[in-house]
Amino acid sequence: MSTQALQQDTAPQTPLDTLSGLLKDDMLQVNTQIIDNMQSEVPLIPQLAGYLIASGGKRIRPLLTLACTRIYGTDSPRPHALAAAVEFIHTATLLHDDVVDESKQRRGKDAANLVFGNQASVLVGDFLFSRAFQLMVADGSLDVLRILSDASAIIAQGEVKQLTTANNLATTMEDYIEVISAKTAALFAAACEIGPIIAGQDDQAAAMRDYGMYLGIAFQIADDVLDYSANREKLGKTVGDDFREGKMTAPILFALENANDEERAFWQRTVGERRQTETDLAQAQDILNRHDANGKALALARSYSDKAVAALSSHRESPLLSCLTDLARFTVDRSY
Amino acid sequence: MSTQALQQDTAPQTPLDTLSGLLKDDMLQVNTQIIDNMQSEVPLIPQLAGYLIASGGKRIRPLLTLACTRIYGTDSPRPHALAAAVEFIHTATLLHDDVVDESKQRRGKDAANLVFGNQASVLVGDFLFSRAFQLMVADGSLDVLRILSDASAIIAQGEVKQLTTANNLATTMEDYIEVISAKTAALFAAACEIGPIIAGQDDQAAAMRDYGMYLGIAFQIADDVLDYSANREKLGKTVGDDFREGKMTAPILFALENANDEERAFWQRTVGERRQTETDLAQAQDILNRHDANGKALALARSYSDKAVAALSSHRESPLLSCLTDLARFTVDRSY
Lengths: 336, 336
Fold this sequence. Notes:
By secondary structure, chain A is mainly alpha-helical. Helix content of chain A is 73%, strand content 1%. A two-stranded antiparallel ribbon of chain A has the order 1-2.
């Protein structure tokens, strides 16, 4: 067996790779839309936007819009610009999040706020957000505009609610699910819902919206588990960011359910009051292991990915349907 | 003569007061829309938005939308929600600007970023921006959506360009006019342009757009003069903010035109490199006076307010038309 074949064996194709393969020609068009529409006569805008957008990212949201359109057999070019609009909304929230979280790293590189400054990150985020709406207006569907403006308002509300739950040990699992439904899953849901709308299959919009919502919740729970996992560094991300910021995510919430007094005092000091020493992250990971908190969080994520799969039950078998189903499962499994 | 009458004499009615009086019932509806639509189940959102919105502000942009609709005689309720959308876009940009500029004061109170933090200011700005688009979608006019999404993209570009011209003594008057046309005048123009669109007088949209654009440019130049004027403190604003931030505004640009070597070195140190001592603002004001820089800037502002008045020449005489004309003149005179 050649070395190349061996490498392929050790890095098996993910459902996201399969989806990208099926939608390759469409994604080329989406990337053209993204590049063309982040241009501006003010050079700093394409520089900063390009820094983040060219640094990769999985393009999962535009892929969802494409898949949820093409699954109905239409060959309309409309999803290209609208998938770019979805990616711009996502990129704008990343830029603003990194300012809000004082992030150091994003996609394995220095975060844009460190390279270009907070000011430019806020304003280029505003530009991309506006540009997303310009793309939607050019498309002309008020339904799409409604779905994505509703999602944008919900995302912002979720982010603000996350600010108010951070460092608060009284945060409930319900609060947490509400925050991630808003800050993450709302855009997944919208990215999926506009697919059937573009394809003229409005009666499927609710099912696709549900799929995206549950997928997004599963995705974010798994991401929050990854934040405590050494695997995360392989993805070009820092381990322990949520811990250092005192975010109340699923692993901590499960660990708190059966915490003894000493553990509760530990979480109160480190997460509640953000007084942390160098060894605290390792100790946090020990406590999470003691309570199988990551395992419980992944089981919760799996319950949402099951719901995502179930939401697609009325759809006929097709390669894209298989991809969407596999993607829901993979979104949890990737964190092992 | 009673004390009250005397006070009225000493504080004469401005064109903005007259406009508010003529549009009093409409403005009550706009304020209701503003209050209702800044509500959220996340309490921090109405708290922060309310802090800024309730602290006054002149509501000049929603008044423009109302005036530019009612001038055509229509009694449609549509401008209420759309004027609120315009004010939300403005409020969102204020919140983001204050984070970007590290502002200390806004409308005579501590700036929202100081009271609620940068994080909440960025995210509540995003919320209000999204809510503005939700209001436009509910109204259903793609023309209005196009005008305001275009304006939003232009505003963000202007703000980014301003970042790149700040502290740069090579900035030209052309650069400056381009920045203020985008960051300030684009929203004035859009606020005015949607009036005839709402009223079904699409053929008047270009004239109203021009009026708003020229008014906005005149307004911003006068505002930049005010930043060096002691009168500014009466308006609840800090004197010298632009100077401290090294913004290249009209007064400095006029002073630089005929600057001697010593003056140029002064501007290079204080504005170019932002190395300032306590007495520098007073010296900057002296140099501006020496070159009549504020007077020249106000003359430039007046040339734009003349263009604003001229843009209305095809409109019939009416109390609202007189108000719009007077407002264009007042926007420059207020800085004396």
